[in-house]
Design goal:
By secondary structure, the chain is an alpha+beta fold. About 45% of the residues lie in helices and about 30% in strands. The two termini are about 15 Å apart.
């Protein structure tokens, strides 16, 4: 499902205009992204937790040349689904 499909499904279920649902969905994603940038976790009961995970510095390889390269440590967003959500899927 794409964002457009998600908006259409929510609009149909709630009886709201797509324009308003789009604004709500965009705002929700923006709020989650802002919290992750600050280093906060976002826990949605029954769905799961969004968090930022640290990746340690490590050695990697250039796939084209096979040359060893040093990869810096980084931060990456991650989602951990709730047990109830996993069981439904």
């Amino acid at each position: 499902m794409t964002k457009t499909g998600l908006v259409a499904a929510i609009a149909r279920e709630c009886g709201l205009p797509k324009r308003e649902v789009t604004r709500i969905v965009d705002t929700m994603f923006d709020v989650i992204a802002s919290a992750l940038r600050r280093g906060d976790r976002v826990a949605i009961a029954g769905i799961g937790t969004f968090e930022v995970r640290r990746r340690a510095a490590r050695n990697g390889r250039n796939p084209k040349t096979g040359e060893a390269i040093a990869l810096k440590s980084s931060r990456a967003p991650a989602f951990r689904p709730a047990k109830r959500y996993r069981d439904q899927v």
